[in-house]
Amino acid sequence: MHMNATPQTMHFADRLPLQSGASLGAYHLSYETYGTLNADKSNAVLICHALNASHHVAGVYEGQAKSQGWWDNMIGPGKSLDTNRFFVIGVNNLGSCFGSTGPMHTNPDTGKVYGADFPVVTVEDWVNAQARLLDVLGIQTLAAVMGGSLGGMQALSWTLQYPDRVKHAVVVASAPNLTAENIAFNEVARRAIVTDPDFHGGHFYEHGTIPKRGLRIARMIGHITYLSDDVMNEKFGRQLKTALKKGELGSYLYSTQDVEFQIESYLRYQGDKFAEYFDANTYLLITRALDYFDPARTYGGSLSQALARATCKFLLVSFTTDWRFSPKRSREMVKALLDNKRDVSYAEIDAPHGHDAFLLDDARYMGVVSSYFDSVHRSLEVTA
């Protein structure tokens, strides 16, 4: 049984100052909540999403088949993050394309659709916007903040921007900043989008076009990096979609026939699906936020100094085959936190799935998160 989910919207009239020096006029955030907020409002857990996810973290929409939230295997009644115990909040980030104010909305300052003029947003800006939402909900302190990948960066940033408002941080398959290789993958994906003739400099809405070709390629690049080589080999190997007859290879190599290997077919399917629902400007905005995140930058590159502001307890989880956000990056965060004598739990899960492992069912992974939230719950009972 899945619990039902209901999307909600919160409007904010006050401008939001951004790190870039710009500010965002009146805006709205889409969010969902699961479970019940206790009397002293101490059992709230904020979930931060990654690149192409949203506020729909768990549960299903009534009457809609296949509408499970993206972390529904993790969050719900009796699950690792148990909504019988915790009040869980999922928020869609500003600039995204799933309900919160983004490039496809009207700029209240000009009366025109933002398009490419939507301001640059950073991880820190998202955290500030999330904090404002919590203010309206009357939640001063979070029992925990949790996220994977880019969501993990937000969880880490919460502990630095609002150290007195977070008791625990769960940072999964994440990093304190992106490697040059990661930034390079993001840049190739962005170039695919901006060079699509249907992009129109980001103002494609008024041209009635969608840069689907660029989005497809961006998604294909991303998808390759989220999977491990082992998983790809196991799933597809070098299988051809249709077996070649003798003497056909020459004509295949020089023909315009597109798909032959199953991996090609799979990537195209993923790319096509993505291009139908994801916004091109959002892709540019969110990958930029990923690239810019680097809390150590203002501390001369010292992560230990940067993380000195964090006071909460931490659980960090990494996956052995994740080469996009490798265990080495999680260990850097663990070391920097231990340098500051922080309370840190760390699990390195031997899972075959690559970066996508943070979204999948792995008994050890789910068990680690479950036992950590058991201890969070116990600490709530002690202070109650």
From TrEMBL:
AB hydrolase-1 domain: from which residue to which, for each copy?
43-360
Please list the residues that bind substrate. Answer: 219, 356
At the top level, the lineage of the source is Bacteria
* Family assignment from sequence similarity: Belongs to the AB hydrolase superfamily. MetX family.
* Assembly with partners or alone: Homodimer.
Q: Which HAMAP family match?
A: MetX_acyltransf
Q: Does the keyword Transferase apply?
A: yes
What does this protein do, in the record's words? Answer: Transfers a succinyl group from succinyl-CoA to L-homoserine, forming succinyl-L-homoserine.
**Record pathway:** Amino-acid biosynthesis; L-methionine biosynthesis via de novo pathway; O-succinyl-L-homoserine from L-homoserine: step 1/1
One Pfam family for this entry, by name?
Abhydrolase_1
What is the first-listed, main subcellular location in coarse terms?
A: cytoplasm
Q: Where in the cell is it found?
A: Cytoplasm
Active-site residues per Swiss-Prot or TrEMBL entry: 149, 322, 355
Keyword annotations of the record: Acyltransferase, Amino-acid biosynthesis, Cytoplasm, Methionine biosynthesis, Transferase
Describe the reaction catalysed, as an equation.
L-homoserine + succinyl-CoA = O-succinyl-L-homoserine + CoA
Q: What is the lineage of its organism?
A: Bacteria, Pseudomonadati, Pseudomonadota, Betaproteobacteria, Burkholderiales
By its UniProt entry, which Gene3D superfamilies does this protein fall under? 1.10.1740.110, alpha/beta hydrolase (3.40.50.1820)
One GO term of the biological process aspect: methionine biosynthetic process
Its Gene Ontology molecular function terms?
A: homoserine O-acetyltransferase activity; homoserine O-succinyltransferase activity
Write down the InterPro entries for this protein, in alphabetical order: AB_hydrolase_1, AB_hydrolase_fold, HAT_MetX-like
Q: Which chain positions carry the site (Important for acyl-CoA specificity)?
A: 324
For this record, an example GO cellular component is: cytoplasm
EC numbers for this chain: 2.3.1.46
Cross-referenced SUPFAM superfamilies: alpha/beta-Hydrolases
Q: What is this protein called?
A: Homoserine O-succinyltransferase
